What does this fold into?
Amino acid sequence: MNILCTVLARGGSKGLKNKNIKTLYGKPLIHYTLEQALESGVFSQVVVNSDSDDILDTAAKVKGIETVKRPAELANDVISKRPAIRQAVLEMEKRFSLTYDVIVDLDCTSPLRDVQDIHNALNQFIADDNDNLITAMPSRRSPYFNMVQRDEKGRVKVVLELNPPVTCRQDAPECFDMNASIYIWKRDVLFNSETNYMEKTGLYVMPEERSIDIDCQLDFEFVEFMIGKKNAAR
It folds into this structure.
């Protein structure tokens, strides 16, 4: 089975400037994900797709990593990353004269995942014959109990109302927060669908301590703390 790992990293981060190559415990943030991908040993190739030459140069310093330059039209902050993943797949298939069966995207802003998470998610995807798979953590808040919104009249109400209403969180339906850590697709599904939610979508659940997605300075500092704690325990 030919499996491609894509790692996407735009240069124009607004929440935290240059976050993808920001130094975290002595190495660029993106290197954590690249090293996990290579260590997993399950990928035919690992490719970084970016519009930034600085990011591509930083990624290329990790032995075994391929790079693909992303065109500007696929690098703005309002377009989904699916078109850029497709671009990377097509370029890599041309480069290596093969067709991939499965594409796994690892978000470089989720460095706390374990290599075992990659193995487990991929094994689950294959065993369940999923069309695609997303990862998530158990939600802290429930739309049935303690997530609220205002209606058109300004009245505050729970996001999803049940009859009878939920009076304690333990009675609410189980919910999850997507953590953006790992996405998996069959190749034809990646190229022929625009949604992550299908009849045969798999869900791999990760604990909160491995699910932090860095989007701002506070996230970065928390991840830095978690990695420091992990290093100290070794």
